[in-house]
Amino acid sequence: MSNLPKDSSVPGEQFEPRQTHPSEDYTPDPSKSLKLSPARQRLVDDIIALYSCQPTVERVKRYTPDCVYDDQFVYANDRYKMAGQWFALPKLFSASKNEGYQVVVDEPGLIQFRNEQSWTFKIIPKTATINALVSLSLDPATEDSDFIRVKYHKDQANDKDYSHEGLGFSFKKWQADQVMKHMDSPEVQQFEADKGAAKDAVKTYGSGAAEGNAPTNDL
């Protein structure tokens, strides 16, 4: 992903990694995971903890104010919205357990890992296990520091990337905005100033397939 920006002042939208995958199978093999530096391992540990319904203010600070979070359900384009998403998870799920992960890319500016997470819903006593490819585009200003921050966090649960178009994408943005209307906890409010973080227009691609600027990459 050598095309990622090197300038930390560039808004998070510019740090989007894009790829399609030969299959929808992102089952991790922890025995094959790449070994990370201690600072990078601490970052991944914090991200896994956030997925596991263990949000803290310090863990949310792993993201820059202008960060983007992008998955199949949500598009949150600043750290205030991001904080709302992480602190909302314990309200929606009674448990979230990490079943294992495999780091597959460890490059300057980018960490990618296969992740398996089991989610137990609060309202319906049902557990769903999801495998996904998690991509963390790193903040150039902190990627070599002890406290690395993230510019763009993408979570892909199928072989295609996101087109950022149509009703599906409108719902993703709507969902991020709606969550914030119900998240007034003091932890989330610590990030309210990030609503004013620099933003670029959302990039659209016409397709989530390879022709949508998402080359096939077997990770």
What is the gist of this entry?
This protein is α+β, with helices and mostly antiparallel strands.
> Element order, helices and strands?
HHEEHEEEEHH
Low-confidence stretches: none
Strand residue percentage: 25-35%
Number of strands: 6
Mean pLDDT: 95
The strands making up the biggest β-sheet line up spatially as: 2-1-6-5-4-3
Question: What is the structural class?
Answer: alpha+beta
Count of discrete alpha- or pi-helical segments spanning 4 or more residues: 5
Radius of gyration: 16 Å
Residues in helices, as a percent range: 10-25%
Assembly form of the protein? single chain
The major pleated sheet works out as:
6 strands, mixed
What is the terminal separation in angstroms?
13 Å
**Dominant shape:** globular
Summary tags:
alpha+beta, 5 helices
